[in-house]
Every structure is written in structure tokens, then in C-alpha cells.
């Protein structure tokens, strides 16, 4: 409950290791995660925006102060805590991706993905997160949202899944300047 930050610290340490040991560079490092992994990506990109070239937070729990007010979110309070309880509020606020987007920071190129019928992690998380990013972000990196229609918490068809994956790869290749020769 009070150790969630260690997850983000470990992920950031792994990225730093990959860069330090020259497995990759900041200019070739993309991170992606969905649902709880979307929270992971959102928290890591707001805490260390300098580490990543491209980020893909998908259907993420981005508003840690209000997540428990929507659909099944109340059931996650055992894992995260509840901002309704004073001792949990500061802990949640410290890593909540939505609440840690800073003014005038150059964030990585970001493609947030969500679905309009997601009843597990409601799309409001992604909508609020991308709106805040677009308001405060500085620099030339695009910060965009992709909304899957008639879909829930995961792709609703193979075709939609292929479309989403294609969009993500195309976005990443474009941002990283990767050319494909046929």
C-alpha cells in the first residue's frame, strides 16, 4: 500500500541501467503498459520524462485521488489505498500521474490509448491525463490520444487490435526517425 513508489523506482532504475550499459539510449527507448501498467508508464514518464523518447500509457489508472469513485475502482483500494483516508492521500498524490504533470516540462512523445466503453478503467482517466499533458507540456514532442470506439478494457476484435498496434509502431518509428525499407 505505502510501497507503490518502489515499483516506479525499480522501473526507472531498469531504464537507467539499459542506457548506462549502452543496450539502448534515451533516443531509442520507448515504454508501454496497459491498465495497472498504464499507471506505471504514467508515473514513470511524469517522474523522469528525460529517460524516454516515446511513451504509451494505455487504459491507465491516472487519477489516483479519484479512481475509487468510478465503477469497480473501489475494489482496488486494498492495493492502492483511498484518498478519502487522510493517511493515504499524500501517498497517492505523490505518484498520481495526473497530479504530477508539471508546468513547462518537455515530456516524451506520448500516445495515450483508451476505449470509450471501458468500464474497468473509465476513459476519464486518459481524457484528464492527456488534457493536462497538452496544457502543460512544452517542446515539440506530440502528446496525443487514441480512442478506440465500441471497445472496453482491451481490444474488441482482432482487426481493432491490429489497427492499434500498427498505430503505435508507426508513431514510435516516426518519432525515432526509423525508416523501413521494403
TrEMBL record:
InterPro entries in UniProt: AB_hydrolase_fold, Pept_S9_AS, Peptidase_S9_cat, Peptidase_S9A, Prolyl_oligopep/macrocyclase
A Pfam family of this chain: Peptidase_S9
GO biological process: proteolysis
GO cellular component terms, A-Z: cytosol
GO MF annotations, alphabetized: oligopeptidase activity; serine-type endopeptidase activity
Reactions catalysed, as given in the entry: Hydrolysis of Pro-|-Xaa >> Ala-|-Xaa in oligopeptides
Peptidase S9 prolyl oligopeptidase catalytic domain location: 3-176
EC number: 3.4.21.26
Keywords for the protein's UniProt record, in alphabetical order: Hydrolase
Name of the protein in question: prolyl oligopeptidase
Species per Swiss-Prot/TrEMBL record: marine sediment metagenome
Amino acid at each position: 500500500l505505502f510501497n507503490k513508489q518502489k515499483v516506479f523506482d525499480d522501473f526507472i532504475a531498469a531504464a537507467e541501467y539499459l542506457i548506462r550499459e549502452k543496450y539502448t539510449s534515451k533516443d531509442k527507448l520507448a515504454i508501454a503498459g496497459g491498465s495497472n501498467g498504464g499507471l506505471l508508464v504514467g508515473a514513470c514518464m511524469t517522474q523522469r520524462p528525460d529517460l524516454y523518447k516515446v511513451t504509451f500509457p494505455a487504459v491507465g489508472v491516472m487519477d489516483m485521488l479519484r479512481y475509487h469513485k468510478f465503477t469497480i475502482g473501489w475494489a482496488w483500494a486494498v492495493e492502492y489505498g483511498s484518498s478519502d483516508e487522510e493517511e493515504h492521500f499524500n501517498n497517492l498524490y505523490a505518484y498520481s500521474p495526473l497530479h504530477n504533470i508539471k508546468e513547462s516540462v518537455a515530456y516524451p512523445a506520448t500516445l495515450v490509448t483508451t476505449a470509450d466503453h471501458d468500464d474497468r478503467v473509465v476513459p476519464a482517466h486518459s481524457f484528464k491525463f492527456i488534457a493536462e499533458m497538452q496544457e502543460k507540456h512544452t517542446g515539440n514532442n506530440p502528446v496525443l490520444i487514441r480512442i478506440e470506439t465500441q471497445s472496453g478494457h482491451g481490444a474488441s476484435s482482432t482487426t481493432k487490435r491490429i489497427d492499434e498496434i500498427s498505430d503505435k509502431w508507426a508513431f514510435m518509428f516516426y518519432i525515432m526517425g526509423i525508416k523501413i525499407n521494403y
